[in-house]
From TrEMBL:
Residue ranges constituting the Helicase ATP-binding domain according to the UniProt record: 99-272
Protein name from the UniProt record: DEAD-box ATP-dependent RNA helicase 36
Matches recorded under CDD domains: DEADc_DDX49, SF2_C_DEAD
Residue ranges occupied by any Helicase C-terminal domain in the UniProt entry: 283-446
UniProt keyword terms in alphabetical order: ATP-binding, Helicase, Hydrolase, Nucleotide-binding
Annotated Pfam families: DEAD, Helicase_C
InterPro entries: DEAD/DEAH_box_helicase_dom, DEAD_box_RNA_helicase, Helicase_ATP-bd, Helicase_C-like, P-loop_NTPase, RNA-helicase_DEAD-box_CS, RNA_helicase_DEAD_Q_motif
Domain of life: Eukaryota
Region (Disordered): 1-37
Boundaries of every DEAD-box RNA helicase Q domain copy: 68-96
Motif Q motif mapped to chain: 68-96
Length: 506
């Protein structure tokens, strides 16, 4: 399903550009040693420069024109050495094509599949330029989720390990006073979610000047950041940044918002697109198992109990709702099955702790809502289980992309009930392939029924005791209020109203 596009004509990213200044000024001087550079690129003080032309690069998996070493990209020796120490032997496609353009001072839109190395494609050239002219805040990276923000910080620290890099992570759920202090100390790189950075910029007049000389704005997972839900935040953020900044957009999927971006600014943007439509990698084995809805938890427990026999080190179980994620985590706890749970109702400290337990190998199972479906890079994930088939096929692709990354193999298993048949058919239509159907010996599975049902009952009683339902209602109320304030609540369509009326009459 296509995401909503931004329609506000005054929105800075999509506003019609005015006439360019007569004498555009260089953004950065091209590294003369870069073997891939032939001209010096220039940009004006906004995105309206006529000196930058669209070069839409669509590549195959075997593009012989791309540089094959990090040194050939024009990166400094320290950056090349760091890549080597991190086991990055040669640049990936998105890195080979985008890094030289970023070093040239170009605005860049990079679209490549999950696990393709997009973070290094923008982090390395930013750090290269920062090392030449160090000051803070040099770059602002905006990403849609808190977990991605902390992961990006880890990757920046690793790539800039020899630079004494100072990074601030600005996300919701953390102490705002401490975040304000961190920003006032002018770190080199700020990594933020849209909502929290907007609040800090808006409420403290001392914060906007911190970004007065920022050279780079990066939108990571740009398809989601450019979703209409973040329009108000982005508009405010852009107003606080210098107009002569360099804009970098990276995404695993192309959407109408990104198409609109390079269609509107086709004479000012370098576009690298290795995207071939929503697809899954060849090294991913995809299976479905059809089960009766009432024994869904029993089948899940049976699958998890077979992980060691299958040689599976770790698994992510995707669940559609926070309620079910919490319930399953309590159920597994009763069954003495160690697992971490990651969903939005948890505090940020609890979310980070769950992710750390899973990434460190302390627990081999992570229960998660779609908050974990984007961008998280955990190399040892061998299995992704769709406990709930996602409502939108696009989300299926992002979920299963958590395994079989960077050429490794992996398994995705979807538990399908009678209510999910149409959803899984939509997934198959999107992928243009039929998923493999598997079966388990029913007697083996159902032998766990009594134990699982008992644990399920205990879990539901615990949810009553800890007041989960009341907390959930309060959070939903807050979310609806926020959406209403943004003007994003729309009247139900006639069809939706009719469906609701029919449901209530049953």
């Amino acid at each position: 399903m296509e995401q909503n596009t931004l329609v506000d004509q005054n929105f800075p990213l999509f506003s019609k550009s005015h006439k360019p200044s007569k004498k555009p000024t260089p953004a950065f001087t091209t590294n003369p040693t870069a073997s891939t550079t032939t001209t010096t690129a220039t940009i004006t003080k906004d995105l309206s420069s006529d000196t930058l032309h669209l070069e839409k690069m669509e590549v195959s998996d075997h593009d012989s024109s791309a540089p094959t070493t990090f040194a050939a990209l024009g990166l400094a020796e320290w950056a090349v050495k760091t890549c080597r120490e991190l086991g990055m032997r040669k640049p990936r496609q998105v890195q080979s094509h985008c890094i030289p353009k970023i070093l040239d001072g170009r605005h860049v839109l990079g679209i490549d599949e999950t696990g393709s190395g997009k973070t290094a494609a923008f982090a390395l050239p930013i750090l290269h330029r920062l090392a030449e002219h160090p000051f803070g805040v040099y770059a602002l990276v905006v990403t849609p989720t808190r977990e991605l923000a902390f992961q990006l910080a880890e990757q920046f620290r690793a790539l800039g390990s020899c630079l004494h890099l100072r990074i601030a992570v600005v996300v919701g759920g953390m102490d705002m006073l401490q975040q304000t202090k961190n920003l006032m100390s002018r770190p080199h790189v700020v990594i933020a979610t849209p909502g929290r950075i907007k609040v800090l910029l808006e409420e403290n007049p001392d914060i906007p000047p911190v970004f007065a000389r920022t050279k780079f704005l990066v939108l990571d997972e740009a398809d989601r950041v450019l979703d209409v839900g973040f329009q108000e935040e982005l508009k405010f953020i852009f107003q606080c940044l210098p107009e002569n900044r360099q804009n970098l957009f990276f995404s695993a999927t192309t959407t109408s918002s990104l198409q609109k971006l390079h269609e509107r600014y086709q004479d000012k943007l370098y576009v690298f697109e290795a995207y071939e439509g929503l697809k899954t990698v060849e090294t991913l084995k995809q299976q479905v198992i059809f089960v009766p809805k009432k024994v869904k938890e029993v089948y899940l427990m049976h699958i998890l109990s077979k992980m060691e026999d299958m040689g599976i080190r770790s698994a992510i179980v995707f669940v559609s709702t926070c309620r079910d994620c919490h319930r399953l985590s309590l159920m597994l706890e009763v069954l003495d099955q160690e697992a971490a749970a990651l969903y939005s109702y948890k505090s940020q400290i609890q979310r980070l702790d769950a992710l750390h337990q899973f990434k460190s190998g302390k627990v081999s199972i992570l229960l998660a809502t779609d908050v974990a479906s984007r961008g998280l890079d955990i190399p040892t994930v061998d299995l992704v289980i769709n406990y709930d088939v996602p409502r939108f096929p696009r989300d299926y692709v992002h979920r299963v992309g958590r395994t079989a990354r960077a050429g490794r193999g992996g398994l995705a298993l979807s538990i399908v009930t009678q209510n999910d048949v149409d959803l899984i058919r939509e997934v198959e239509a999107l992928l243009e392939k039929q998923l493999e159907m598997v079966e388990y010996k029913e007697n083996d599975v159902l032998s766990l029924m009594k134990k699982v049902f008992s644990a399920k009952n205990v879990a539901e009683m615990k949810m009553v005791d800890d007041g989960f339902e009341e907390k959930a209602k309060e959070r939903k109320k807050q979310k609806l209020k926020m959406l209403a304030e943004k003007g994003l609540l729309k009247k139900r369509s006639k069809k939706r109203k009719r469906n609701l009326e029919e449901k209530n009459s049953d």
